[in-house]
């Protein structure tokens, strides 16, 4: 049968196999030769496919690494090629301008921070300086780094109050982060101070911008949003307050308490900052990528950017409905050995997912759509309020992808809510650095995988109060209302707060 087929073929392809035919050899020998040729072709084709394998997102990948992984029979992991570390670093190394959303070349600007002598006790000077800084939107260090942002870049926004020692430690941790020079680092302040500015001006490892929340307690110590002498004291009864005719007599919170200015500022600042970063900063207009939110008393691991980029790649495939990536967690014991490259999927819970939150415009737009709910919810905690939005306003709730081994540490757990605990920033820093040092070989995981989904039942959280005052609600609304920018400019000129709260 075989030889018959061969003969037919030979006749049909006389010219092709002519040379073979002239050799007048035995058919079985020719079959063997043909078999060899086909085998060689097969192997060649396989090699070809291997050499030209392209990952789905089309980025260049490190072929020798890929081969090594395959050689190890590590097919399960190469199936996760989208989330592979080598892919990220290769994409970064390529001098490839495709996909650039924001581009400011090096040496376009040579300006550095100007030292301005601001009299810190002169609130007029501070107001003018804040207005100028927010208008100019100056980015420091462009002379060194330029700015190139793509959809897979990371913009880091730090909300800063007044704890300079923590801020210094956070910046020291950011200095050690891989690829930090490719990010834009934005500090959002609610206190203007020389001391804080000096610390930020010492950042020489990436492009930096400072923005200033303009309606602060510092600038309005004796009127809203500060403590007006005619505001009702926290614990006065409503009937008594109405008799006294103090300013906010009609608006205690749901527990019957009147507002405490220092607790209200953070929620205002949080919403203002997001609006500013996503919608108002010129440099961010074209940017579609993720924004990482940090606070002054956090400490970040050196692989945080890499890890967030890998999570984002994993999200595209394994959790399209995830709208938030969380690089940190509060677990008492952290096992980097077991969990370094593992994530968990969950629905947003403020007490678990508020540290190292990372998201893009899609979630910001959802928050904005729910701004009325955000500003009216009687709770002064922005994260608690966000969980309420997730449960009651944002469609499909906020789905989160969370690192199982934390890349963010909370140093200042003796802040607003932790009175009595002793604050030892330097001791805390040492402890965190020891954890990172001990686990150095487990940072920068090669592969990122989903390892479980949290089954915790979540409810709409009960509001904690502290946010009953109509002026807080109105001020909050003013940040995201249609005519917010015009009103804000009028306010900045006149410094008349009633423009925003009236
Ligand atoms: C690719 O990976 C191999 C093995 O990890 C490494 O030695 C080599 O330098 C990498 N090549 C590039 C271009 O990154
Ligand atoms: C990278 O691109 C810039 C401009 O697009 C070019 O001037 C520079 O020479 C390139 N660098 C390398 C290493 O190719
Ligand atoms: C944003 O995109 C526009 C249009 O492509 C471009 O002219 C502008 O320079 C970009 N902005 C930045 C900051 O790169
Ligand atoms: C900035 O400085 C660099 C090097 O000092 C110089 O080459 C460049 O022309 C300067 N750019 C501008 C806009 O002044
Ligand atoms: C505060 O600064 C403003 C603007 O620079 C100046 O006009 C004013 O005299 C200063 N006030 C005091 C008390 O120094």
Automatic annotation (TrEMBL):
Keywords: Disulfide bond, Glycoprotein, Glycosyltransferase, Golgi apparatus, Manganese, Membrane, Metal-binding, Signal-anchor, Transferase, Transmembrane, Transmembrane helix
Pathway given in the UniProt record: Protein modification; protein glycosylation
Topology with respect to the bilayer: Single-pass type II membrane protein
Enzyme class: transferase
One Pfam assignment: MGAT2
Residues that bind Mn(2+): 297, 410
Binding site for substrate: 159-163, 190, 265-269
Gene Ontology MF annotations: alpha-1,6-mannosylglycoprotein 2-beta-N-acetylglucosaminyltransferase activity; metal ion binding
Disulfide links within the chain: 232-246, 319-322, 370-393, 375-476, 414-423
Cellular component, GO annotation: Golgi membrane; Golgi stack
Location of the protein in the cell: Golgi apparatus membrane
Keyword Oxidoreductase appears in the UniProt entry: no
Transmembrane regions: 33-53
Catalysis: reaction(s): an N(4)-{beta-D-GlcNAc-(1->2)-alpha-D-Man-(1->3)-[alpha-D-Man-(1->6)]-beta-D-Man-(1->4)-beta-D-GlcNAc-(1->4)-beta-D-GlcNAc}-L-asparaginyl-[protein] + UDP-N-acetyl-alpha-D-glucosamine = N(4)-{beta-D-GlcNAc-(1->2)-alpha-D-Man-(1->3)-[beta-D-GlcNAc-(1->2)-alpha-D-Man-(1->6)]-beta-D-Man-(1->4)-beta-D-GlcNAc-(1->4)-beta-D-GlcNAc}-L-asparaginyl-[protein] + UDP + H(+)
EC numbers: 2.4.1.143
GO biological process, one term: oligosaccharide biosynthetic process
Cofactor: Mn(2+)
Location, primary (coarse class): Golgi
Family listed: Belongs to the glycosyltransferase 16 (GT16) protein family.
Full protein name: Alpha-1,6-mannosyl-glycoprotein 2-beta-N-acetylglucosaminyltransferase
Species annotation: Mizuhopecten yessoensis
């Amino acid at each position: 049968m075989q030889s018959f087929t061969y003969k037919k073929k030979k006749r049909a392809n006389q010219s092709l196999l002519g040379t073979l035919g002239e050799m007048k050899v035995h058919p079985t020998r020719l079959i063997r030769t043909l078999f060899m040729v086909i085998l060689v072709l097969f192997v060649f084709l396989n090699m070809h496919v291997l050499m030209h394998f392209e990952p789905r997102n089309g980025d260049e990948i490190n072929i020798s690494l890929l081969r090594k992984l395959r050689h190890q029979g590590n097919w399960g992991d190469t199936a996760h090629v989208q989330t592979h570390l080598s892919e990220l670093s290769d994409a970064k190394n390529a001098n490839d301008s495709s996909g650039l959303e924001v581009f400011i070349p090096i040496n376009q600007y040579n300006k550095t921070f100007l030292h301005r002598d601001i009299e810190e006790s002169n609130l007029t000077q501070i107001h003018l300086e804040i207005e100028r800084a927010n208008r100019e939107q100056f980015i420091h260090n462009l002379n060194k780094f330029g700015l190139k942002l793509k959809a897979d870049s990371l913009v880091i926004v730090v909300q800063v109050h007044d704890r300079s020692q923590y801020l210094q430690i956070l910046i020291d941790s950011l200095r050690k982060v891989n690829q930090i020079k490719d990010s834009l680092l934005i500090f959002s302040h609610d206190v203007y101070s020389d001391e804080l500015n000096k610390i930020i001006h010492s950042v020489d490892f990436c492009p930096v911008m400072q923005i200033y929340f303009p309606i602060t307690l510092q600038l309005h110590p004796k009127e809203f949003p500060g403590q007006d002498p005619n505001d009702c004291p926290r614990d006065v009864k409503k009937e008594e307050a109405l008799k006294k005719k103090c300013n906010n007599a009609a608006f205690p919170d749901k527990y019957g308490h009147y507002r405490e200015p220092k607790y209200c500022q953070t929620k205002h600042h949080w919403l203002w900052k997001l609006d500013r970063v996503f919608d108002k900063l010129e440099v961010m207009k074209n940017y579609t990528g993720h924004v990482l939110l940090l606070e002054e008393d956090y400490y970040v691991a050196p692989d945080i950017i890499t890890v967030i980029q890998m999570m984002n790649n994993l999200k595209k495939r394994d959790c399209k409905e995830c709208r938030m990536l969380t690089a940190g967690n509060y677990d008492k014991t952290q096992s980097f050995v077991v969990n370094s490259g593992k994530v968990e999927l969950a629905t947003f819970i403020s007490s678990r997912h508020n540290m190292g939150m990372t998201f893009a415009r899609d979630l910001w737009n959802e928050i904005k759509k729910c701004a009325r709910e955000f500003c009216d919810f009687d709770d002064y905690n922005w994260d608690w309020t966000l969980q309420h939005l997730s449960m009651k306003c944002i469609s499909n709730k906020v789905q989160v992808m969370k690192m199982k081994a934390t890349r963010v540490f909370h140093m200042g757990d003796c802040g607003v809510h932790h009175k009595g605990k002793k604050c030892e920033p330097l001791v805390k820093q040492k402890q965190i650095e020891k954890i990172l040092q001990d686990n150095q070989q487990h940072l920068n995981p090669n592969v990122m995988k989903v390892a479980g989904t949290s089954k915790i039942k979540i409810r709409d959280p009960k509001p904690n109060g502290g946010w009953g005052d109509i002026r807080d609600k109105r001020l909050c609304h003013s940040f995201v209302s249609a005519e917010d920018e015009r009103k804000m400019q009028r306010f900045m000129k006149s410094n008349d707060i009633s423009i925003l709260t009236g």
